[in-house]
């Protein structure tokens, strides 16, 4: 999703204010959801991710563009179809996210996002720099049914932006919204290494898919964050490549690799 430079700065400033507010909340309430090294690691990973977005933008658009060109129909650019695109993109994101947890090659990309023992807004951008190599493939079906390329990119971008606000302990459960929309409570469950919480709540914006495919789990016990193996590091490059190292080196059997680090 292309965002003009001045709009990017406004969004960045807004998100920075939220992070600072969360740091103040954590300090005043002695929540200890921030650590200097952990936060610095997240910010360095974010910087690298921003560079990777630029490097892989052409590749991503080429994948979706190719699917668009061979689509049998091309739907109009209307708000009605943008709404449909947003829902379809969230459905496809659910499966992309779910498969990323159960299939070792994709878990190699996604592992980093679950490697932090803390939950705060900076954790949202603990993302693999090479994830752009695989993510557009999962949105090809949206292009093949004729949804506009720009709508697909915008829907995925908004989906990820929405998820930024879910990575926090500041907000408690949201009553009737739980189980319908993805909420901070639902996403805390997703990041939990508790046996009860493993492989739950994959939706980006909506929890309807988790309800439909029986992967929804409400927050009922204190969440323990991080990988089930206990692996953690404050070195960005180690975190970026840890999943790939496990995949290729195969220090354990494939079945143990997937179950051992899954979250």
UniProtKB/TrEMBL annotation:
The keyword Lipid metabolism applies. One of its GO terms (molecular function) is glyceryl-ether monooxygenase activity. It holds the Pfam family FA_hydroxylase. Coiled coil: none annotated. Residues 84-215 form the Fatty acid hydroxylase domain. One of its GO terms (biological process) is lipid biosynthetic process. Its main location: membrane. GO terms for cellular component: endomembrane system; membrane. This is Sterol desaturase family protein. It comes from Chitinophaga oryziterrae. It is found in: Endomembrane system. InterPro entries: Fatty_acid_hydroxylase, Sterol_desaturase/TMEM195. It is a multi-pass membrane protein. The chain crosses the membrane at residues 42-67, 79-96, 129-154. Keywords: Lipid metabolism, Membrane, Oxidoreductase, Transmembrane, Transmembrane helix.
């Amino acid at each position: 999703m292309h965002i003009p430079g001045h709009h990017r700065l406004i969004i960045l400033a807004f998100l920075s204010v939220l992070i600072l507010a969360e740091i103040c909340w954590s300090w005043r309430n002695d929540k200890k959801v921030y650590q200097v090294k952990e936060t610095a690691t997240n910010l360095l990973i974010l910087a690298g991710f921003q560079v990777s977005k630029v490097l892989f933008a052409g590749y991503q658009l080429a994948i979706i563009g190719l699917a668009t060109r061979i689509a049998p129909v091309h739907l109009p650019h209307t708000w009605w179809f943008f709404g449909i695109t947003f829902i379809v993109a969230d459905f496809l994101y659910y499966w992309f996210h779910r498969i990323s947890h159960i299939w070792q090659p994709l878990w190699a990309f996604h592992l980093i996002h679950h490697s932090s023992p803390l939950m705060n807004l900076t954790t949202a951008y603990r993302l693999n720099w090479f994830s752009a190599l695989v993510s557009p493939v999962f949105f090809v079906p949206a292009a093949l049914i004729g949804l506009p390329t720009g709508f697909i990119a915008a829907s995925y971008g908004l989906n990820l932006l929405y998820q930024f606000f879910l990575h926090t302990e500041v907000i408690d459960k949201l009553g009737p919204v739980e189980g319908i929309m993805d909420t901070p409570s639902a996403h805390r469950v997703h990041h939990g290494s508790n046996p009860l919480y493993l492989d739950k709540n994959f939706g980006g914006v909506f929890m309807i898919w988790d309800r439909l495919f029986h992967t929804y789990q409400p927050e009922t016990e204190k969440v323990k964050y991080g990988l089930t193996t206990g692996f953690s590091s404050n070195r960005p490059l180690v975190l970026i490549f840890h999943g790939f190292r496990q995949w290729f080196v195969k220090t354990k059997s494939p079945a143990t690799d997937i179950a051992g680090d899954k979250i």
